[in-house]
Design brief:
This protein is mainly beta. The chain has two helices and 30 strands. The longest helix has 13 residues.
Length: 385
Amino acid sequence: MKLKKTVVTTVVVAAMTVLAGCQSVPEARQQSVIEQLSSVSMLRQDNIAGAYEVAVAPGVDSVFVAAVPAFEPNSGGVVQRLDPRSLQVVQSIQLPRRSFALGFNPTSSTLYVGNTLDGSLTVIDATNGAVRGMIQLGERVVDGKGQVSAPHTRKVVVDPLRNQIFVTSPDSEGLVWIVDGATNKVRHTVETNGPWPAGAAFDRANNRLYVGQGGLNEVVVINPENGEIVNTLSTGDTTSADPKESKHFFVNMAIDEKNQRLFAADANTGSVYVFDLGNGKVVQIVPVGEGLLDIAYSEQRNEILATNRGVSRGSPAGTGSLTVIDGTNYSVNRRVDLPVHPNSVALSANGQTAYVTVKVPHGNDHPAWRKDAQDSIVRIDLQGG
């Protein structure tokens, strides 16, 4: 399968042909093309080098993608602003540090970029792409060779109501930083007492942060007001405190605030674990597939969306998909086949459209490898069946 500039419907191919020469196309015709693009069930653009997380920002009519085009020492990052209809890049925001994760505050129109390898957040004005500043979360250390290291960041979750930002740090003895969005200062640093805190989901009504990790207690519940762990949730499957014995690793999570359910993507088993937050028990386990990575919940559709790369030690080639799970009976409503390897998923404000980043394989021994291929962004109309 060729990954370069591949689009999945004939109407999109025609539309993109028009867009390629958009400078000479009358405005009315351009608008007609956008309407066509908005009506298709799936659209894919292979136009981002080093894509990672995606975030939807309806208030500024944009989709943002964090990207790391190069991994050389001292290389920077890029946040690409995309048109949510055509998925064309409309602005490239250059950053001094590599950008992996994204969190968006719709109230202040602020975009927070997780600089994973530098232990920091870059703060961006989402209205114009201006960099407002940087928040150093973990201490940066320079060794004798001049190499800089810092505790890594992972997930960035924003509470717009209280203007607070949560950032996980997935080390063997991991941390969670709670940042005051008004001052850009770290308010609390929380030790989770477990390995690799990675995924996170926030309950806005109850002001509770849920953090997924490995170990004996795969979920910790944090009160952001005082930075204290107020509860833990466990599958009960892990019986040893040795991280190597962890049966699960909840790499990403999503929450159903209305019905008080937590959805955890387990990278170890490739299944979604559903917790009832009322009693803290696992009520359902939904197999998705190898390389399970990201997860989102559409309250409007009562559906859980999960990406999986199809990659494991047993199958390094991998096949990708987005799995859509019924939130009532937990059956699989549909699987959307995607190129390798689906990465991050985000939903539109109305919960009817999914945006997924897809990474190309790096090794030339992979059957889908193509020289100079770029990563993709895919828009999927969930109403399209």
